[in-house]
């Protein structure tokens, strides 16, 4: 997924490493765009991912009870911290943006502190848009009951399309 590519504009962006890595171009439909304080991109200062690229990241799965379903459901996909590491994220704040333009700010620390999942699958099936897909940020509510608050529920952006790192 990553290949070395020289970065010509390093002087303009001092937080970027001198030898940035570039992401491959997606071969399928783009489902996620990351922008802002990232060191690895595949298009004009943004990183775009298709489902196949997300599937190449290390995968995690867990079952969890959420307010949106009447029983525990199995969510799987890469951890948010793995996604952020894959683009060399250096920001402290993440703004998640959904297909309906819902926006929520998430401290980047949450991705390090908890196993926050970028769910690409629900009960081992791709998540349909009508069922909150294709991407859904899920916190491990059953592992950390203290996360069962409106603040953390609001950070579970479904129909995710973009993450802006600042």
User: What's the structural domain tally?
Assistant: 1
How would a textbook summarize the main sheet? 5 strands, mixed
Distance between the termini: 24 Å
Q: Averaging pLDDT over every residue, what do you get?
A: 89
Tell me the β content. 25-35%
Strand order, main sheet: write it out. 4-3-13-7-8
Please report the total strand number as a whole number.
13
CATH architecture: Alpha-Beta Complex
Gyration radius, rounded:
16 Å
CATH-assigned homologous superfamily: Oxidoreductase, molybdopterin-binding domain
What is the global morphology? Answer: globular
User: What's the number of helices?
Assistant: 4
Enumerate the spans where pLDDT stays under 50 for 5 or more consecutive residues. 1-20
Chain oligomer state:
single chain
Q: What is the share of helical residues?
A: 10-25%
CATH topology call: Sulfite Oxidase, Chain A, domain 2
Order of helices and strands: EEEEHEEHEEHEEEEHE
Going by helix content, strand content and strand pairing, the class is alpha+beta
Query: Briefly, what CATH class?
Result: Alpha Beta
